[in-house]
Amino acid sequence: MTETSTMVPHVPAAGGRRLPAPRILLRTGALCLVTAMVYVFLYLPIIHIGLGSASRNTNFPYPPHWAFKAYADLFANALYRTALGNSILLGLGSAVLTVTMSTMAMIGVLRFAGRHARIFILLFVAPLFVAEVLVGISSLVLSGLFLGLPGNLFSAMLANSVHCFAYALLIMATQLYRYDWRLDEAAMVFGATPAQTFWLVTLPLIWPGLLGAFLISFILSFNNLEISFYLLGATPTLPSVAWGALRYGVKPELFALATLVNLTVLAGLAGMYVAMARGWAKFGHRPERGAAVG
Q1: How far, in Å, are 90, 173, 238 from residue 145 at the CA level?
Q2: For 69-78, 134-143, 193-202, which range has the lowest pLDDT when averaged over its residues?
Q3: Range with the lowest mean pLDDT among 66-75, 79-88, 141-150?
Q4: DSSP label at 11?
Q5: Mean pLDDT of the chain
Q6: Higher pLDDT, residue 291 or 245
Q7: I want to staple 53 with a disulfide (CB 3.0 to 4.6 A). Which of 5, 245, 256, 266 is the partner?
Q8: Which candidate, 226, 120, 136, places its Cα nearest to that of 169?
Q9: Which domains does the chain possess?
Q10: 271-285: b (≥16 Cβ within 10 Å) or e
Q11: Are 248 and 153 in contact (CB under 8 A)?
Q12: 241 CB-contact burial (10 Å; exposed 0-12 / middle 13-18 / buried 19+)
C-alpha cells in the first residue's frame, strides 16, 4: 500500500517564485478589502445624499422615513428652474462647439499634419494644464477688454469649449487612430464628394466617439462653476445657484438637486453600457471576418 503525502499547493507568482496558498488567500483578501474601502469612499456620500433627499431627517437618514418635500420645494423654486435651463443651454452649446472643433482638428492632424503632428497635439492638449480659474479670468479679459463683448451665455460657451476641447480631442484621437482612411479614398474614387464621404462613410463609423466627446463636454460645461462664474455675471446656472445657497446652510433642496444630477448621469452611463453590450454601438471600424483587406 503506497503512502500518499499531503502537500500544500503552490501557485506561480511573478518572477518565477511560487507562493503558498495561504499567502495567496491573504493577498486576495487584502485586495478585496482595499477595493471595498475604495467603493465605500466613492459611493457612500452619494447614497447618503440620495437617502437624505427623500427622508424627513436630512442629516442622518438612517433608517429613512420617506418624505419627498425636498423635491417638491426644488421644482417649485423658480430660480432653480431658470438655472437648470441656462445650464442645459450652456452644456449643449459648449458640447456642440467642442465636438465640432475637436473632430476637425483630429482629422486634420491625422491626415495632413505629417511629421508636425506631435507639435499640434501638444498645443491642443495644453489647456489640460491650465487651471479653470485662469481660463475664466483670461476669457473675461479677452471678451471684455479686447473684444468689448459683455458676459453672456455665448461667451461662456466659448470659454467652456476651450476647457473641454482637450478632453474631447483625446476621445476623438482614440476613435480616429484606428480608423481606416482607405474607406474614404474608396468612396471618393467612386464619385462621392468630400461632404458625402463624411456623412455617408466617416460619420456612421465614428459616431460613438462623437457621442462620448459630446457627453464629456456637456457634463464638464454643465457642472462648471469657475469659468462660467466670470463670464455670466448675474445669469444663474445650477452650480452658481447651489454655491450661493451654501451661504445659508445645506438645505434639503441641494440634496434633491445633487441626487437628480447623479441619477441622470447614472442613467446615461447605463444606457451606453446597454448599447455596447447589445452591439448597438461599436467603437472603431472592424473588418468582417473573412473579408479581404487590400
Answers
A1: 23, 35, 27
A2: 134-143
A3: 141-150
A4: E
A5: 81
A6: 245
A7: 256
A8: 120
A9: 24-67 (no CATH), 79-277 (1.10.3720.10)
A10: ebeeeeeeeebeeee
A11: no
A12: buried
- Calpha distance 152→139 (Å, rounded): 12
- Given a cut of 80, whether residue 284 has pLDDT beyond it is no
Total residues belonging to the chain: 294
Strand partners, 66: 55
C-alpha grid cell, residue 195 = 461632404
List the alpha helices (DSSP H) in 150-250.
Answer: 153-176, 182-189, 194-197, 203-223, 226-232, 238-245
* Percentage of the residues of the chain whose pLDDT score is greater than 90: 12
Cell triple for 133? 480659474
Residues 229/86, Cβ–Cβ less than 8 Å: no
Place of cell 437624505: 52
Query: Strands 10-12 and 18-20, how do they pair?
Result: antiparallel
Question: Which whole-number Å values give the CA distances from 76 to 82, 210, 235, 264, in the listed order?
Answer: 11, 36, 19, 20
3-class SS of residue 181:
coil
Q: Which three cell numbers stand for residue 225?
A: 462653476
Lowest mean pLDDT across 172-181, 190-199, 203-212, 264-273: 264-273
Q: Are 196 and 187 in contact (CB under 8 A)?
A: yes
CA angle, residues 84, 47, 62, in degrees to nearest 5 = 120
The residue written with cell numbers 446615461 in the block is: 268
Q: Residue 175 and residue 168: Cα distance in Å, rounded? A: 11
Look at the block and give the residue holding cell 463636454. Answer: 217
- In 3D space, the residue among 211, 215, 204 whose CA is nearest the CA of residue 266 turns out to be 215
